[in-house]
Structures are given as structure tokens and as C-alpha cells.
Amino acid sequence: MLRTFSRINAPRLARSFQTSARRMETPTGALPQKKPVGAFRGGLTGFLLGSVTAGVGMYYYVMDEYKMANTLLTEDIYSLQSAVQRIERYVRVLEDKVEKKKRGAAVDELQPPS
């Protein structure tokens, strides 16, 4: 209770908000005005950079796949060509054998039986 009494009777110090004139002034050209970079310009640059990088990577990937597929196709063509040549040789040999048998049968028919 004593405390409350002393507070009531004590003189109050009024505080006021005070600032110096210097702080209240607005700065006149102390800091240069910055142009806003903005999300649009930065985003557009990032998008274009990412797109170009992805495009270049995709180009090299597709070209590598194309070369590999072209090599495999060329190898298949050469193996098919060699298989066709072997079959042609085999057919020629068979045709020669058939021709020889026909000639042998025709010669046997021409000779009189003895």
C-alpha cells in the first residue's frame, strides 16, 4: 500500500517523442535510385538460358542416337547383302547341277541301247 501511495504522489515525468531535425529530413540523393530488375526480366533470361541449354543437350543426344542407329542399320545391310550373295551362289550351284543332270539324261536318250 505504501508503494501505491508513493506513486500517486510522485511527480510524473512527461516523456515526449523527439527527434533531431536531421533525422526527420528526407535524404536528398544520398542513395542512387535503382532500376528494378523485376521478376519478368530475370525470369525471361532464366527461361531462355534453360531452354537453350536443354535444346543443345537434346540435339547432341538425338545426334548420338542417330549415329548409333545409322551404324547398326549399315551393319544389318552389309550382313543382309552377304547373306543374299551366299544364297545366289548356292542357287547357281543347284542350277548347274540340275543342268548337268538334264544334259546327262538327254545324252542317255540319244545313245542307242546296246
Automatic annotation (TrEMBL):
Keyword hit for Transmembrane helix: yes
Transmembrane helix as UniProt keyword: yes
TM stretches of this protein: 39-62
Domain of life: Eukaryota
Keywords of this entry: Membrane, Transmembrane, Transmembrane helix
Name the UniProt record assigns to this protein: Uncharacterized protein
Organism (species): Phyllosticta capitalensis
